[in-house]
Every structure is written in structure tokens, then in C-alpha cells.
Amino acid sequence: MTFLRRLAVWQCLRVRRHICVQTTEFSAAGTVLSPKAERQPWTPFYTHNRRLHSELSSEAAEVELNKLEGGDTGIAEVVMCRQHARNSLGKVFVRQMRELVSSLHHDSTVRVAVFRSTVPGVFCAGADLKERAQMANAEAELFVHGLRSLMTEIALLPMPTIAAVDGFALGGGLELALACDLRTAAFSAQMGLIETTRGLLPGAGGTQRLPRAVGFAVAKEMVFTGQRLGGERALQLGLVNRAVEQNSDGDAAYREALGLAREILPQGPIAVRMAKEAMNRGIEVDIASGMAIERMCYARVIPTRDRQEGMAAFIQKRPPQYIGE
After folding, report:
1. Is the C or the N end of the chain the one with fewer CB within 10 Å?
2. How far apart are the first and last CA of the chain?
């Protein structure tokens, strides 16, 4: 019994020490702040940018978070930068994306999130087939289950999300874009769920989200044939919200997504989040249940300071200044 008690105490001390390490604040240089500074309001570790994580780890960043400033404060960019593998969905990429998405779930300062790529001509090339080929059947099935879970986490982000498709978005790459609320694309982009050409079927939400975006008949044709769509055709089918001619920098879809984010940014952030929740939850149920969901979401907006500010701004004929409270 004495040994067990000692073991329990030791485990408890380890947990307490782990919590202390996790909640210690860091300065911009990555050094521990003084005790006086530690008494200041705590900033969660996940709000620090990816640079600090990279300094503490030898692992190269394949996904980064970039929070815009100035007039674009409130817009965050999820930047995919796995250059050597065309943003394919490998283990490191997926893990880093999951960590980043998890941090966004709890970040009330982000009003719009834009998913973009810095790899020329590619949004996301889908599965990392070299990695997948090394997996046993059970391991591959578990990995795809995790990938499906990641796409669901992206879809459940509370703020509006926009995928900027400036190049190839194939297989899992299109499934990632489909997990976002809105999509912009360059005319030259190529989008498709091509899994059947590899003897597979879409396994990260594609069979469910594509029909909801373009209708069942079109979705079935796309999946059965593995066909690819350009930006103009994707716009005609409703797969993307906006499509534009590609520019010389190769980032036309990103610029269009940023413009769309700027249109969302001035609106009441709580109202936008509640509207997203009402629509996302309501589309899965009958109309009567959907109305009940809308009523509950509306009730959560009524007591906010932002609603009062919106009414006051309307009466005073001035732009509202929302604070997200």
C-alpha cells in the first residue's frame, strides 16, 4: 500500500508540474516572464504564432496560422505550406492542422478564417500516397478515420471559413475545401473527388458534403467518373461561391477570398456565428426542428452588447462598432 500511495503522489506531482508548464507565459523572445508579469491575465499558449512552436521543435511547419492586423484585424489565415509534397495529407500535416484548428475553436478574436496555400498551383493534392502505401490496412483505416474527424472539426469551427482554391484540390484536398463554409476558385483550378480512379471512394466527408453542395445527381456523376472541374464549371454547379481569372501572381482565388472575408468582417461577430450554427444544424433536421434551432440561436444574440450597438448605430445613422460581446 505504501508503494501505491507514493506512486499516486508522484503521478499527481507530475500532472501538477505539467499544468504549470502549460500555463507559463512566454515573452516574444520565448523566455519565461517574471512572477510579476505572470500575474497579468493569462494568454493561452495556442494564441502565440507558429514561429514559437517551430523554435521549440525541430519539426518543420507544414501548416501555419497568420493573423492579419490593421483594418483586417479579425481575419486569420490557415496557411498550408508543405512545399515538397504539394500539401498532401501526410501524418505531420494532418497533426499540425488538427492543432491549429483546435486553437481556432477557442479563439474569439478570429471573426473569419481563410484556408489558403503558398504552394504554387496547388491548394491541396489530397492523400500522401507514398505514406499511405507504407501503412497496413488497419493503420490506413485508422488514419482515414482521423482525417474524417479533422474535416468535421473544420466544419464545426464557430466562425465563417473560406477556402481559396488557386490550384489543384483533388480527393482529400477538395474534401478539405468542402469542409469550409465558402469557397473561391481561380478559373484554372482543378477540383474533383478522384478516389474511384484509385480503387477507393471519398472517405473524409466527400460523399456527404459534395451532394449537399451541388445536388445528388451531379455529385454522383463526379464521384462515379472521378472527373475534374475547372473554376468556371465549379461556379456554375454551385461548388464554389466565386470564381475569377487567375492573375500573374497565381493567387487570384486568395485575393477574392480575402475580399469576401472583408465583407463579413464588419458584421456582428456573435450574430454571424449564431447564424452559421443555425444553418448548419438546421439543414440536418425537419423544418419544425430547424425553426426551434433558429429560435435558440436568436435568443443567444438578444442579450449581447453587440445587438444594442447595432440598434443604436441604426438610429444614429452611423456604422456599428461591434466588439463581440
Report:
1. N
2. 53
**Closest by CA position to 231, among listed 181, 178, 190:** 190
Average pLDDT over residues 132-141: 84
C-alpha cell at 280: 448548419
Q: What's the CA gap between 264 and 244, in Å, rounded?
A: 19
pTM as predicted: 0.81
> DSSP readout, 213-252?
HH-HHHHHHHHHHT--B-HHHHHHHTSSSEEE---TTS-H
* Per-residue pLDDT at 260 exceeds 70: yes
Grid coordinates of 11: 503521478
In the block, cell 500539401 appears at 87
List active site positions: 127, 172, 175, 195
Task: State the burial class of residue 43 (Cβ atoms within 10 Å of its Cβ: 0-12, 13-18, 19+).
Answer: exposed
Q: So what's the pLDDT on residue 132?
A: 78
φ, ψ (nearest 5 deg) of residue 34: -70, 160
Q: How confident is the model at residue 58 (pLDDT cuts 50, 70, 90)?
A: low
